[in-house]
């Protein structure tokens, strides 16, 4: 188990280094950072001085090492667009995105999992067919369209919910949270619902497919032949066996929630990292792009590690593999 | 009976073989399932209709929305005909520039489908080639290709496309980027979607690789890769068709999303996503038709294609029935 | 024979027909078969794949997979009809009165639960035993099926057992609450040849000890010869011949059974060529008129192509073959 985790950590480290390398290459080869920092009227001497000061004349590996050293300390330089340290900008945006993603992920799991189990168990039932059709419509509607429709209905026509922004937030240290005010909750409902819909249908369809697959296995037939109750067969035996793929995909889905948050944040003008990233792309704000990339990669890597650890909890075959249990 | 069959086999023409294949198809499970689900027939008809309208847009659209000369700002913000103030010339109303919404939808669908179709085609070719190389060569090559695939699969397509777009935007001068926007878009969507094709082909390759006919082909000096191409491809045709169909739906959605975010197709060639984006500015002032109709058009297209893909997957996989 | 005829049969299957509705019409997979089993008796059901033997087993335990359905006939256990019971009633009979052993021990056990847990849940489903009682019973069962160090092994997971050991666990699960009848569907097919005999001995020994009736479903006549008391030979959804194992093996009446016997190699007769039946069993979609075996039968005559033969008593066995019609009339 320990060796497995070490191996996984090493792999994660390699992924992080690769992403850092891409970010670093963005910095170095896309445009001239000096041009971005000094004005057009700067003299050649001034430019050269800045180059030396920034270490741009150093050999490539040293520059890369320095980039990584800075990145580990959270230093990604200064945003071209906002003229503020990237770390500050991100720190103000990160809580908004993470809270949005958290609520969306919880919604997707809490609703998607039971619906998937239900449609998997009663696959010829009327309810399943309705749910499946709805889920297909859910997958086919673009996120941004759903967001716009929600705004039109609940903000413009009914006036129940705010159409943009985070509403009232409460500051806890550097973290600003939506969860402590009514207005905050009201603001997060529509973005979170919009963001979760696609993931929800995906989880539902995945659980359904896995459930149907597992229900065909011999051990389920054997469990029935032993006279176990439907409840025990479905939830004790079948559901647990669907968990490994479901955990994998759910992990991946949380990752894509962060990416899809870009769209949701644009529609609802939600002041998170996604909106920041989109603006960075449109302005070619490389430091912010690089920082976002590294941060997202880091979050992905952490999620993947958690997924691996969950496997251990679920599947005994992995637990014993390394300690050499008798065969 | 047998005699005449023998005769036919001897004189069997290409046309006959084609007709035979056709007959077997219409007699097969897939077609049976098609004929017995009205929803799928409708979805198929809708998809075909979209392709036709998109392809023929310059000829069948009531107005040519690319022709600035025909536009009249006085025609702007006209509601659909059935609403008060509707103009019979503009069935679904007009947008802020006075363009006919129905026509912009046809031209928009043309852009959306072109981008979607080309990117899926490219992803398919890329995926099949890489999958076959990975599966056939194996070893380090396989490990590297599949590792890249794994890492890429864990990054959502939309993020990859955004990154590529952001990258080209910073590298290329603004004008060049606008011109190349469509190409960049197709390339990046394709690049984000090859993995599934590659995995399927690789899996089938690994199975076929050790079969005797490949060994035999090697013995008689034929290039085994050639033989495998002939045997692996037919095997994976079904899954590939399914992935491609569902991929088309998701590519159209990705394109629309990017255009909505303002990083997709250039505004001079609006796709459905661009239309929704532009229209959403006027949504709250009451001109709902500018955004709702392109939105509905997009949703119906994607839904139809998704339905087809979903059905195809079940129809080709008898285990699930 | 005489002793058994006094007691009531444990299981009676009468005129059972199993159908599959398909889009090209209804297929009859099992057609009008009848047999019964006495307590403690081992009945072998033998036939090629597709002969309907596994479906018969599934029907008895009430686990026919839709769209398959029992279209006619009845199945009675200890005099009570069980083929038309509601799901919940039938569930209480499964495991409690009818145990099952499946073909592949590698896939029959849930990989995520220890075998102890799977035994305990089976026992607790059907009895009022407490957790600790059930666990003690589980350890006993494992000892009964010949698993060494059962106290330790009970907490291990299926992947920690070899194939043969897993099949022993499956047998323990089938016998966990002392059922009256066990259905073993190809119990040794997936196992190494060296282990097959051990497992068959174990099934036979345990069932004889506990007076449990057994249906062993197999395509392997050798398994039948080794284990069963009586044998039913199935062909294309019908019983071709049924009778005591010794008689069927030594004096096969039906030409199909004869062919089957000819295909078993026997020690001491190595000079004799193994015979083989030409052709293959017809598909359910095109079963010929008359006797289903007629295209392959070396002795087929006019009547075989017109009418279906019913089972006819011939000496100790009964065979569905027109060859014996006259004898039946005379005898």
From TrEMBL, chain A:
Pfam families: BPD_transp_1, BPD_transp_1_N. GO terms for cellular component: plasma membrane. This is ABC transporter permease. It is found in: Cell membrane. The keyword Membrane applies. It comes from Oceanibaculum pacificum. The chain crosses the membrane at residues 12-30, 100-118, 130-160, 188-207, 246-270, 290-314. Keywords: Cell membrane, Membrane, Transmembrane, Transmembrane helix, Transport. The lineage of its organism: Bacteria, Pseudomonadati, Pseudomonadota, Alphaproteobacteria, Rhodospirillales. GO terms for biological process: transmembrane transport. It is a multi-pass membrane protein. Residues 94-311 form the ABC transmembrane type-1 domain.
UniProtKB/TrEMBL annotation, chain C:
It is found in: Cell inner membrane. Gene3D superfamilies: P-loop containing nucleotide triphosphate hydrolases. Keywords: ATP-binding, Cell membrane, Membrane, Nucleotide-binding, Transport. One of its GO terms (molecular function) is ATP binding. GO terms for cellular component: plasma membrane. It is a peripheral membrane protein. Residues 11-261 form the ABC transporter domain. It comes from the Bacteria. Its main location: membrane. InterPro entries: AAA+_ATPase, ABC_Ni/Peptide_Import, ABC_transporter-like_ATP-bd, ABC_transporter-like_CS, Oligopep_ABC_C, P-loop_NTPase. One of its GO terms (biological process) is transmembrane transport. The keyword Transport applies. Belongs to the ABC transporter superfamily. PANTHER family: DIPEPTIDE TRANSPORT ATP-BINDING PROTEIN DPPD, OLIGOPEPTIDE TRANSPORT ATP-BINDING PROTEIN APPD. NCBIfam families: oligo_HPY. This is Methionine ABC transporter ATP-binding protein. It comes from Oceanibaculum pacificum.
């Amino acid at each position: 188990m320990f060796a497995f985790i070490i191996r996984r950590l090493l792999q994660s480290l390699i992924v992080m280094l690769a992403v850092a390398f891409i970010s670093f290459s963005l910095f170095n080869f896309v445009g001239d950072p000096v041009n971005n920092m000094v004005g057009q009227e700067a003299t050649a001497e001034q430019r050269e001085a800045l180059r030396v000061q920034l270490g741009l004349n150093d050999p490539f590996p040293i520059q890369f090492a320095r980039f990584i050293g800075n990145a580990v300390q959270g230093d990604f330089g200064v945003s071209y667009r906002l003229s503020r340290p990237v770390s500050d900008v991100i720190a103000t945006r990160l809580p908004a995105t993470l809270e949005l993603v958290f609520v969306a992920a919880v919604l997707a799991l809490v609703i998607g999992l039971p619906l998937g189990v239900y449609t998997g168990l009663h696959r010829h039932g009327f309810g399943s067919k309705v749910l499946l059709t709805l889920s297909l419509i859910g997958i086919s509607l673009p996120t941004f369209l759903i967001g716009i429709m929600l705004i039109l209905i609940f903000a413009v026509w009914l006036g129940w919910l705010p159409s943009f922004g985070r509403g009232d937030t409460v500051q806890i240290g550097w973290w600003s949270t939506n969860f402590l005010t009514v207005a905050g909750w009201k603001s997060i409902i529509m973005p979170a619902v919009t963001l979760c819909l696609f993931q929800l249908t995906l989880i539902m369809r995945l659980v359904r497919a896995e459930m149907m697959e597992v229900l065909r296995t011999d051990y389920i037939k054997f469990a029935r032949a032993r006279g176990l109750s439907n409840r025990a067969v479905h939830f004790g035996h079948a559901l647990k066996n669907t968990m490994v793929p479901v955990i994998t995909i759910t992990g991946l889905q949380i990752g894509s929630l962060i990416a899809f948050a870009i769209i949701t944040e644009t529609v609802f003008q939600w002041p998170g990292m996604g909106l920041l990233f989109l603006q960075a792309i449109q302005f070619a704000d490389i430091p912010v792009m690089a920082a976002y990339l590294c941060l997202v990669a880091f979050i992905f890597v952490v999620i993947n590690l958690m997924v691996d650890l969950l496997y251990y909890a679920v599947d005994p075959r992995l637990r014993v593999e390394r300690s050499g249990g008798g065969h | 009976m047998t005699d005449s069959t023998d005769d036919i086999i001897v004189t069997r023409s290409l046309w006959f073989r084609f007709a035979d294949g056709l007959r077997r198809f219409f007699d097969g499970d897939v077609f049976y399932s098609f004929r017995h689900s009205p929803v799928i027939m409708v979805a198929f008809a809708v998809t075909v209709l979209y392709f036709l309208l998109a392809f023929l847009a310059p000829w069948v659209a009531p107005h040519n929305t690319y022709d600035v000369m025909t536009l009249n700002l006085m025609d702007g913000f006209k509601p659909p005909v059935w609403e008060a103030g509707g103009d019979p010339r503009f069935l679904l109303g007009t947008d802020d520039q006075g363009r006919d919404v129905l026509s912009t939808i046809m031209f928009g669908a043309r852009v959306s489908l072109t981008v979607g179709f080309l990117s899926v085609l490219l992803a398919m070719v890329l995926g099949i080639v890489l999958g076959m190389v990975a599966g056939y060569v194996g070893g380090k090559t396989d490990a590297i290709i599949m590792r890249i695939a794994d890492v890429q699969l864990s990054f959502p397509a939309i993020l990859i496309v955004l990154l590529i777009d952001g990258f080209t935007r910073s590298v290329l001068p603004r004008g060049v980027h606008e011109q190349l926007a469509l190409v960049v878009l197709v390339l990046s969507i394709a690049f984000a979607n090859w993995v599934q094709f590659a995995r399927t082909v690789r899996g089938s390759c690994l199975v076929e690789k050790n079969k005797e006919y490949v060994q035999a082909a090697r013995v008689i000096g034929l290039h085994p890769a050639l033989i495998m191409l002939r045997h692996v491809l037919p095997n994976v045709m079904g899954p590939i068709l399914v992935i491609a169909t569902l991929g088309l739906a998701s590519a159209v959605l990705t394109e629309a999303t990017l255009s909505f975010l303002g990083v997709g197709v250039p505004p001079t060639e609006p796709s459905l996503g661009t239309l929704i984006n532009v229209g959403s500015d006027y949504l709250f002032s009451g001109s709902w038709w500018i955004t709702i109709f392109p939105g509905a058009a997009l949703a119906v297209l994607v839904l139809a294609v998704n339905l087809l893909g979903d059905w195809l997957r079940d129809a080709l996989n008898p285990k699930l029935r | 024979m005489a002793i058994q005829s006094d007691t009531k049969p444990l299981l009676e299957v009468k005129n059972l027909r199993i159908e599959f509705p398909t889009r090209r019409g209804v297929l009859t997979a099992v057609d009008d078969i009848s047999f019964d089993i006495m307590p403690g008796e081992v009945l072998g059901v033998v036939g090629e794949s597709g002969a309907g033997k596994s479906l018969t087993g599934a029907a008895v335990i009430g686990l026919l997979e839709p769209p398959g359905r029992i279209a006619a006939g009845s199945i009675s256990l200890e005099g009570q009809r069980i083929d038309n019971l509601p799901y919940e009633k039938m569930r209480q009979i499964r495991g409690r009165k009818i145990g099952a052993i499946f073909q592949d021990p590698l896939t029959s056990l849930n990989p995520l639960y220890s075998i102890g847990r799977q035994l305990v849940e089976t026992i607790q489903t059907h009895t009022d035993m407490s957790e600790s009682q059930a666990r003690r019973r589980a350890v006993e069962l494992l000892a009964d099926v010949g698993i060494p160090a059962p106290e330790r092994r009970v907490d291990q997971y299926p992947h920690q057992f070899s194939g043969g050991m897993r099949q022993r666990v499956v047998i323990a699960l089938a016998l966990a609450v002392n059922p009256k009848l066990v259905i073993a569907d190809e119990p040794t097919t997936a196992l190494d040849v060296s282990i097959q005999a051990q497992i068959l001995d174990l099934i036979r020994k345990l069932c004889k000890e506990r007076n449990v009736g057994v249906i062993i479903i197999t395509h392997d006549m050798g398994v039948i010869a080794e284990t069963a008391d009586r044998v039913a030979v199935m062909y294309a959804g019908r019983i071709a011949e049924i009778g005591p194992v010794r008689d069927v093996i030594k004096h096969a009446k039906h030409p199909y059974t004869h062919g089957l016997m000819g295909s078993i190699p026997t020690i001491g007769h190595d000079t004799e060529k193994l015979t083989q039946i030409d052709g293959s069993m017809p598909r359910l979609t095109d079963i010929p008129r008359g006797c289903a075996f007629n295209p392959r039968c070396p002795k087929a005559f006019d009547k075989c192509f017109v009418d279906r033969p019913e089972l006819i008593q011939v000496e100790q066995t009964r065979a569905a073959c027109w060859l014996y019609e006259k004898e039946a009339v005379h005898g």
